[in-house]
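Cast an eye over this sequence plus tokens and walk me through the fold:

***
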Amino acid sequence: MKDWLRRVNLISELTCIPLNDAERTGHLRRLYLDVISRLRNAKGAERPASVAAAVHGQMRHSQGYSVAMLIEESRVFQVATFGALHLHQSQLDQKKVLADVIVIADEVDSQLRESVRSLTASETNIGRSPAHAARFISWVPVE
């Protein structure tokens, strides 16, 4: 998370929204837990949409983020995650690491899709209650 924050703090497109470190990183733990859960699931198992990612999209909408900003955050999430794998590669099972990287990339892309859906749903529900938006997001089908 420190590496992610360091990288994000170098991107003026993201830092133009004034957030403290806790506001900027508060979603990361839940997103990483979703990645870990996905890695532990059996291959081919149904994967539910990330609630953490949907909440993240709503939160970033309320903070003034655009879709492009969400995409940039997600890119940095992948770079930081893969950087950590590279740093600790000697501790990883080399027979599984490439397959795990594929799963991680797929999960992060799925999280981004949910965050974007949530952010754009929030844009179309301006003036409605957060509870209404949460009900809408929970019903959005996953392709």
